[in-house]
Amino acid sequence: MIGPQTKLYAIIGKPIKHSLSPKLHNAMFEKYGIDAVYLAFEVNNIKQAVEGVKGLGIKGLNVTLPFKNEVIKFLDSIESQAKIIGSINTIKNSNGTLLGYNTDYLGFFETIKDIDCNKSICILGSGGASAACIYAFYKKGVKSLNIYNRTFANAFKLKEQFGDLITLNLIEKKDIYKNEIIVNTTSAGILGSEDIIDLNLLNKNSLLIDIVYKSELIKKAAAVGINGIDGTKMFIYQAYHAFKIWTDIEFDINHAFEVINGPS
């Protein structure tokens, strides 16, 4: 029962209607008997939204597209890994002090943990999510990655940002198909969005990873015989780490998969 003492958590972004975060976090609040509710807010102005977090006493926040980079300048403190990545997806409100974290890279690391990454790898996109994936590959021990982005300048910023940690090679679209592992960090996996690559040009032995959960791109890849992994595991593990930051509770991963893969 929601009452005056109920704590509020939320996700902000635009668009936000596709988010499964409320479904997952509310299920976990219920499972662990936490008097809290998690809502989704579509916002236009990130500065005003962050001010609202302090003003309303919202205890924790997830941040999604397109605000993961922009939100940083409105926070009071940034965790060290998030500083390197330059992107925030989790915020904790500690008595009015807003602390920023990146749990996306932890989620993606779980996705690639058991994959042989001693191969040619290409990342599509150059936003906050791609930075998190690059850092996860770095933690995995990968020394070099290929980056494709429609806007060259944005990809070049990533190259400069990670120059001391990992070699990033900026490639043209035609060179995407030479890679053995391709990671899509763009919105191309969302239903109704434009495909960023021609799946028919991919090598049948290649692996396509999409950070979008329940990805249409991965479904299309399967239809033409391409092995693919969607973003469900990344999503659940980034949520696991966010939940732990907020509550100090390590939620049941198996239960989380049941919640996400169960009935809508």
UniProtKB/TrEMBL annotation:
Pathway: Metabolic intermediate biosynthesis; chorismate biosynthesis; chorismate from D-erythrose 4-phosphate and phosphoenolpyruvate: step 4/7
UniProt xrefs under Gene3D superfamilies: Leucine Dehydrogenase, chain A, domain 1 (3.40.50.10860), NAD(P)-binding Rossmann-like Domain (3.40.50.720)
Keyword Oxidoreductase attributed: yes
Sites where the protein binds shikimate: 19-21, 64, 89, 104, 213, 238
Entries under SUPFAM superfamilies matching the protein: Aminoacid dehydrogenase-like, N-terminal domain, NAD(P)-binding Rossmann-fold domains
Domain SDH C-terminal: 231-252
A GO molecular-function descriptor: NADP binding
Reaction catalysed by this enzyme: shikimate + NADP(+) = 3-dehydroshikimate + NADPH + H(+)
Pfam annotation, one family: Shikimate_dh_N
Keyword Oxidoreductase: yes
Position of the signal peptide: none
EC nos: 1.1.1.25
Keywords: Amino-acid biosynthesis, Aromatic amino acid biosynthesis, NADP, Oxidoreductase
Active site: 68
Domain Quinate/shikimate 5-dehydrogenase/glutamyl-tRNA reductase: 118-211
CDD domains, alphabetized: NAD_bind_Shikimate_DH
BP GO annotations: amino acid biosynthetic process; aromatic amino acid family biosynthetic process; chorismate biosynthetic process; shikimate metabolic process
Membrane-traversing stretches: none
UniProt: NADP(+) binding residues: 125-129, 211, 231
GO CC entries: cytosol
Protein role: Involved in the biosynthesis of the chorismate, which leads to the biosynthesis of aromatic amino acids. Catalyzes the reversible NADPH linked reduction of 3-dehydroshikimate (DHSA) to yield shikimate (SA).
Subunit details: Homodimer.
Family: Belongs to the shikimate dehydrogenase family.
Protein name, entry field: Shikimate dehydrogenase (NADP(+))
Organism: Desulfurella multipotens
Organism taxonomic ancestry: Bacteria, Pseudomonadati, Campylobacterota, Desulfurellia, Desulfurellales
